[in-house]
Amino acid sequence: MSDLVIETTGLRKEFRSLRGEVRVAVQGLDLAVPAGGVHGFLGPNGSGKTTTIRMLLGLARPTRGTMRLFGQAVPERLPQVIGRVGAVVESPKFSPNFTGRRNLMLLAGAIGAPASRVDEAIETVKLAGREKDRYKAYSLGMKQRLAIAATLIKEPDLLILDEPTNGLDPAGIREIRETIRDLGASGVTVLLSSHILAEVQQVCTSATIIGNGRLLASGTVDELLGIGTSYRVVVPDPAVAGQVLARAGFEPATIDGRLHVEAGDPAELTRVLGEAGIWLTELSPLRADLESYFLQLTEAEQLGHDAAADSEAVA
């Protein structure tokens, strides 16, 4: 049995305008989300992220292709697995005059969940102490955390979040980021859709990058960025150190007066310099970022950022 929580093959979605014109929102998408951790679903606005999520949740029907959740074909067997899925896709609907806890209690009652689940969800999203405030007094970040708490009442194995930090201030973004990181560490599989690549990099263990509805790259974040292969070398005389490293078979480059060196084994790099009597004052791995990597992938794609093109409310 597959250990993938989400799997799509050749997924395609077309929209037809009133004039009969066809727009392809998702084209041949192969998506594979492993169990556990936080998986980033990344791409600019209009790249097909929300359309894909809506198809997975049965809110839109694919034109072609197959989809599976927990190994079950959807939408055919969606009723059998939907109880294991929580999702925050659109603006949550809560009663503004009820407290956060009262809103959650109403939801718990509707699905037959005990009150203890509400208390656990409030603790998980760090709303303890504010759960008795009225919803209308909540900040945007608190409202988003309450929406996540609502999905946690049924103890989902998969949590799908579509652009959860949109419109939030830096404090709200940090709160949501910490909540998502904690959920991924707790064993819940989180699919985090976002166009803010630098933000997502801080919480994701793996990622899929799409553009124009097509798969561009997928893997662990370390695999995508090639972590640990390039280092910044700070020494008293970069020119001399560069010559020593070049003779040893390395390919150093001088950037802003400092050496950047590709090295599979940093211990070998320090050994070569040490034997030449050159002592390091700094050796730091150069961590690429998802935003730069994404731009490299898409510079020839001419990807648009037309939010209107991603108006995916019509199946």
Main beta sheet: strand number and arrangement?
6 strands, mixed
H-E string = EEEHEEHEHHHEHEHEEHEHEEHEH
| Spatial strand arrangement across the major sheet | 6-7-8-3-9-10
How does the helix and strand content classify structurally? alpha/beta
- In CATH terms, what is the fold-level topology of the largest domain? Rossmann fold
Helix share, percent: 25-40%
Low-confidence stretches: 303-315
Report on this model:
This protein has 315 residues and is α/β, with parallel strands linked by helices. 32% of the residues lie in helices and 27% in strands. β7 (158-162), α6 (170-185) and β8 form a beta-alpha-beta unit. 36% of the residues are buried.
Summarize the structure.
With 315 residues, this protein is an alpha/beta fold. The protein is built from 11 helices and 14 strands.
